[in-house]
Write a sequence for this structure.
RNA sequence: GGCGAUAUGGUGUAACUGGUUAACACGUCGCCCUCUCAAGGCGAAGAGUCCGGGUUCGAGCCCCGGUAUCGCUACCA
């Protein structure tokens, strides 16, 4: 396929999601994935999965496979991707670095980009000064104005550099002073170039930033419609500038509302379970999750009066609908732009609806595939075998593996020599340490012990606290192994819910005083 | 701070594109059913559509001006 010849106005649609393998697969990815998938399905187009692994500092090696698995689990199927191939691969950005370098060079040659030799420290200093002066923090280094000779000299001197986009600012004559693009949901959006930074395109490690890689790939892969989250609106002018610099035809842009926490901020793991692994392990059905995601931001058309009459009693639009219903009725033009709060309570209700609709056999199968799978029980069994006298005690000892609402009382989790406040402060640090930890016994052990040492807590105190939070009890199967079996997503979720509950309790107690 | 986007009960959406008392779902509360808890059934409270002007016979839908919230403001995506 030669993307040069794709006429984006009339060609069959090609869309994509582009997750970054930086951790657990995210509900937001499933949300945007669903939208892209529907868009392609409705128009007989292609849905592509591209892995954007250009950030080497945040790269997590296990993440990519988890993304594949999680997306397959929810039932989203891509036509092209790193694992299934396709005509415009490779579909992993780390395998395309040569391409980016080549296109970056073109930009430098045409004057649309330049090498910047400022160090991160210099940039940081500049930023601070600008903040102090209350002006917009923007790149303002001398490299932008280097002559070819000066640049050559700096390269020859071995100075590391980044490549930055030269945003036209009218400095030499009356250049273009603003960029306007059309958002298919919002209409025209204009950004003055004074507010568009000279974005880094190529980092000093040779990897591209999102902005360059994304535009180059979208063009080379023939993407006709960029359907992504609202947080990208501000950087779209940079992307438009890049398309123009290359002389490429623009795709259509559709910016979707951002999923929110209860407090309306962008959905985050601190305030919401956000890992798809969590939802799978906690026993949500993929159909229910997809259905719920389809509700976010509207989009499902109301039945017309004709439909109501012809289809009889089905007067109201039900909140319950399948992916097939969505393919038939979901209307992108109807999407409402307010950021929808991701409401776990309603998701649970909906999951319950789906659970109840299952036949007894299907329900049994669902249990056996998730919470009561052989794999899970096999992993748990050795932890209790030496600790029980009858098989009947298995349940007593392992209840917390199968439960959702574990909440220890303060007398259980506060060590004798500590106050509640001390304990919660320690727990906060412990949670932070666990969040960044790998999930095997050695790593967790190290994370806990590091926190202990830092806070001058005894080993016993620290592990007891963690045990209480995980199991709701002071006696349990071996802690580290239990944590591993229970999984990072669910363990951390339980820990966060514990912190949340304690915070609420503390607030209540304060009000009582 | 700057720039951008957004705004309908606590939450998600609807209101046939200006036309009667703003509808549905979740949640909350009450009643019924029931050995319990759910589920199910019935019912209630809860918004006058962010605020202020304007246009119009008529505005949640149009115009102007505010406000609030969110996002971006990285060699992260």
């Amino acid at each position: 396929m030669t993307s040069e010849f794709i006429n984006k106005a009339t060609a069959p649609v090609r869309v994509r999601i582009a997750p970054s393998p930086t951790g657990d697969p995210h509900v937001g990815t499933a949300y945007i994935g669903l939208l892209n998938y529907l868009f392609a399905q409705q128009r007989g187009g292609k849905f592509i999965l591209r892995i954007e692994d250009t950030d080497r500092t945040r790269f997590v090696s296990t993440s990519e496979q988890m993304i594949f698995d999680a997306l397959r689990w929810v039932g989203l199927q891509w036509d092209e991707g790193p694992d299934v191939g396709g005509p415009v691969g490779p579909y992993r950005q780390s395998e395309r670095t040569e391409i980016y370098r080549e296109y970056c060079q073109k930009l430098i040659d045409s004057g649309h980009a330049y090498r910047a030799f400022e160090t991160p420290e210099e940039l940081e200093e500049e930023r601070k000064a600008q903040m102090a002066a209350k002006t917009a923090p923007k790149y303002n280094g001398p490299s932008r104005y280097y002559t070819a000779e000066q640049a050559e000299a700096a390269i020859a001197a071995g100075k590391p550099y980044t490549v930055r986009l030269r945003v036209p600012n009218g400095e030499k004559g009356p250049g273009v002073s603003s960029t306007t693009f059309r958002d298919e949901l919002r209409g025209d959006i204009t950004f003055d170039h004074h507010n568009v930074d000279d974005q880094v395109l190529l980092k000093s490690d040779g990897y591209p930033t999102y902005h360059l890689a994304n535009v180059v790939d979208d063009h080379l892969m023939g993407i006709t419609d960029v359907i992504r989250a609202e947080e990208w609106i501000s950087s779209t002018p940079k992307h438009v500038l890049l398309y123009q610099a290359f002389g490429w035809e623009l795709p259509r842009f559709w910016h979707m509302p951002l999923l929110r926490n209860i407090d309306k901020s962008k959905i985050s793991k601190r305030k919401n379970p956000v890992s798809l692994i969590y939802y799978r392990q906690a026993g949500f059905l993929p159909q229910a999750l997809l259905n719920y995601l389809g509700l976010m931001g509207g989009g499902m058309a109301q039945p017309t009066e004709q439909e109501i009459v012809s289809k009889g009693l089905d007067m109201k639009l039900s909140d319950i609908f399948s992916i097939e219903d969505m393919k038939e009725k979901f209307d992108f033009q109807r999407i409402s732009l307010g950021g929808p709060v991701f409401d776990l309570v309603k998701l649970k209700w909906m999951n319950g609806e789906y659970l109840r609709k299952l036949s007894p056999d299907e329900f049994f199968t669902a249990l056996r595939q998730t919470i009561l799978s052989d794999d899970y029980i096999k992993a748990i069994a050795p932890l209790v075998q030496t600790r029980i006298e009858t098989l009947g005690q298995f349940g007593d000892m392992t209840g917390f593996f199968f439960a959702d609402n574990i909440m220890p009382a303060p007398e259980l989790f506060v060590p004798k020599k500590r106050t509640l406040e001390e304990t919660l402060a320690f727990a906060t640090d412990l949670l932070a340490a666990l969040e960044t930890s790998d999930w095997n016994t050695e790593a967790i052990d190290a994370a806990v012990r590091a926190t202990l040492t830092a806070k001058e807590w005894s080993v016993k105190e620290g592990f007891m606290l963690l045990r209480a939070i995980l199991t709701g009890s002071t006696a349990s199967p071996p802690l580290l192994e239990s944590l591993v079996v229970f999984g990072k997503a669910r363990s951390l979720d339980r820990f966060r819910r514990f912190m949340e509950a304690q915070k609420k309790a503390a607030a209540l107690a304060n009000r009582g005083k």
